[in-house]
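Handout, section B. The chain below has 200 residues.
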Amino acid sequence: WRDQIRSVARYSIEGSTLCTGTLIMDVPGSFRPFFLSAAHCEVNADNAPSIVVYWNYEAPQCGQPRAATLTQNQTGAMFRAARAAVDMLLVELDDVPDPAFHVFYSGWDRSGAIPQGSVGIHHPSGHVKSISINDDPLRTSNTCFGNSDIDTHWRVNNWELGTTESGSSGSGLWDIQTKQLVGFLSNGTAACSNRSGFDC
């Protein structure tokens, strides 16, 4: 997952709210810096210019979080799209990330084929990057926000390795076999205090 890890970043909005997002490739392969996250992180046209994206905020080895730095960052984005019913947010970063950051543009799959397992890469509670692994097939689920939309989300019944937290919102979900992005974290009950919880 070394490539996909490099597409994931922590970001702040107006200096406070922390969420996670993923740099994605567009269909033409233009390398425009589109950044996918969750609408409930409350990015809009007014505050998108205040976004600060922190690349490669991760421990050099497991168990060494204090060695991580926030030095690889960039500021500013343009709001492109949001859809509350499915909790989708798309912004375009003002600048292509610095080549020294070695970012990766994740590919994605909108076929609807059921992944037989999944991986989430995220910044739980805004902390250093983590990876969570689910070995079970995903299933479709109604939105976790309580409206009537049917089968809008994939559901991870529980993570076999790792979990998510507040701050993981908007982070990508990849098919464990194809390594293609199939969704992003919208909501759920999974947490360090609830290791058997689910995510949408």
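Note. The first strand starts at residue 8 and ends at 13. Compare this with the example in section A.
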